[in-house]
Specification:
The complex is a heterodimer of chains A (about 110) and B (about 350).
Chain A lengths: L5 H11 L1 H27 L3 H18 L2 H15 L7 H21 L2
Helix pairs in contact in A: 1-2, 2-3, 2-5, 3-4, 4-5
Chain B lengths: L8 E5 L3 H13 L3 E5 L2 H10 L4 E5 L7 H9 L9 E6 L3 H9 L4 E5 L3 H28 L2 H10 L4 E14 L2 H6 L3 H21 L2 E7 L2 E6 L8 H25 L7 E16 L4 E6 L1 H16 L3 E4 H5 L7 E7 L8 E6 L2
Parallel strand pairs in B: 1-2, 1-3, 3-4, 4-5, 9-11
Antiparallel strand pairs in B: 6-8, 6-9, 7-8, 9-10, 11-13, 12-13
Helix pairs in contact in B: 2-3, 8-9
Classes of the chains: A mainly alpha (about 110), B alpha/beta (about 350).
Chain lengths: ~110, ~350
Amino acid sequence: MPVIDKTTFDELKQMSGEDFINELIDTFLEDAPKMIGEIKSAFASNSVETFRRAAHSMKSNAATFGANQLAALAKELEMLGKENKLHEAGDRLEALDEAYASVRDELTGLKS
Amino acid sequence: MKSSHEPGQMLVVDDNRVNRLLLTRALEQNGHEVSNAENGKIGLEMLRAKPYDVLLLDIDMPEMNGFEVLEALLQDDELRYLPVIMTSASDELDRVVKCIEMGAEDYLVKPLNPVLLRARVNASLEKKRLRDEQRKLFRTFATPQVAEQLLRDGFSLGGKYVTASIMFADIRSFTSLSEKREPAEIIELLNDYFALMFDAITANNGMVNQMQGDGFMAIFGAPVHDENHREQAVHAALEMAELLKAFNEQRATQNKGVVRIGIGIASGNVIAGYTGTQHRATYTCVGDTVNLAARIESHTKIAGKPILIDEFTREGLRGSIQTEDLGDVIFKGKQQAIRVFSVKI
C-alpha cells in the first residue's frame, strides 16, 4: 500500500487548486502533531471521548490526503475509543507515530 | 469548472481545520460566498446574526454537535427551513440517517467528491429558493401563523373541532358615509381602518380570515391553540374601539365623517380547517358559534352598544373588563334564547 494514494491526492489537488494544496498540506502538518499529542494524553488519562474525537479527526484528514494506511490506523483507534477499550491501544500508538512520519515526509515532497 | 447556478451564501461548520479550509475553498471555487465556524455553538450564533442559503454541518464537534444544531434549528421559526447538508465520514452513515430524520436535507461523505458537492449544494440552493418563494406567497394570502403552520405540517385540506372565539366586525354607518365621498377617498378610508383593526387583532393573537366589504371575521385560539382566546378576543375588541376613537378624532379635525362599528363575539366549538383548493385556500371556521357571532354582531344595531359578547365568552374574562347583562335575546333561526352582554369601553 503506498503511503499516499495518488488518485485521491490528484483529485484533491484538482478540487482545491494548485496554489491551495500547499496551504492545505501545511495546515495538516501543523494540526496532526497536536492530534497525536491529544490521542496520547487522552490515552494516558483514559479520557475516552477526547481520545475518540482526536482519532476521528486524524482519520478524516488522513483520508482526505489519500493517506489510507494512517487513516485505517486512526479508525482502529477511534473504534477502541467508541468501545471504551483504550487499554488495547498501546502498541498502535507507536505505529501511529511511524505512519504519520512517513505521511509527513511524503506530503512535504508533494508540495509544489 | 464554474457553477452555472446563482451563487449563494454558505456556512461551513466543522471543528477540523483541514476539512473547514477544503470545504470553504471548494465552495468558493463554485462561486459561492463562504463563512465558517469551528463548532455548532458559534455556527448557530452566525446563523441567527445573518441570513444564509445553505448550511454544511459536521456531526462530531465539541461545544455543540451536529445533532444539537439541528435540534436548535427545528425550534427556530426563521431557521427551520434552511437547507442543511451533513458532512460526515463514510463509516457513520447510521448517524447521517438520524440527521436526515431530524430534518437535514442531504449529506456529503468526506473525503469530498467535487461533483457531488456541486450537485448537492445546487439542489439545496434550489430548494431554498423555492421555499422562500412559497413562504412569500403564503404570507400574501394567509396570515403569518397560518403560513408557518402550512409550511411546518404540510398542506392538507380537512378540518377538526377546536374551541375558539369568533369575532365579527362591521362598520355601522358606512353606507351613508360613502354616498357623499369620492371612491378613492372611500378606499383610502377602508385601508386605514383595516390596518388599524388588524393591528389590534394580531396584537392579541387573533387572525383575520375573512373580509367582505367593510366587514370582517377573526378567529382567536386557532389555528394555534391558546386557552385565553376569549379574553384575547375581548381585549382586541376594546383595543379596536380605542384605536377607532383616535382615528375619528383625527378625521373630525379634517372635517371628515366619523366611523362607527359593531363587534360581536361568541365562543365555543367550531369546525376549523383549510377550505379551498391546493392552489388557493383559506383557514376558516364554521358551525353554530360562527353563526351566533354574526347574529350578535347584527344585534349591536338594535342594542345600541358597540361590543356584544355571549355568555361563554364572558365566563372567560378575568380582571378589569366590565360587562353589562342585556338579558336574553332570541335570534332569528335559533330555538333558544341567548344571553347577551355588552362590554364597557
